[in-house]
Design a protein that fits this description.
This protein has helices at residues 2-12, 15-20, 28-32, 36-79. It has 80 residues and is mainly alpha-helical. α1 runs antiparallel to α4.
Length: 80
């Protein structure tokens, strides 16, 4: 959702006007960063992305921990 808000604001602020002025397309996003509202949305987008990546890493850590416990249980079961 955060990325959609960011793109909508770029559209609303007329990033295409920069292109019409002759601004190279490779730096239009950098030019738009100067807008406070765009900067805030970019920050929120980046925070949301980082939180998602962190959650995914935590899920992987829990899965690994579960596999370790499962292996220990199987070793214990087969040892008897």
């Amino acid at each position: 959702m955060k990325r959609i808000d960011f793109i909508r604001l770029l559209e609303k602020n007329g990033w295409w006007l920069e292109r019409d002025k002759g601004t190279p397309t490779t730096i239009i996003e950098s030019v738009c960063r100067g807008d406070e509202e765009i900067a805030k949305l970019r920050m929120n987008r980046d925070i949301a992305d980082t939180m998602w990546r962190t959650a995914m890493e935590m899920i992987q850590a829990v899965k690994l921990e579960m596999r370790i416990v499962q292996d220990a249980i199987e070793r214990e079961y087969h040892a008897n």
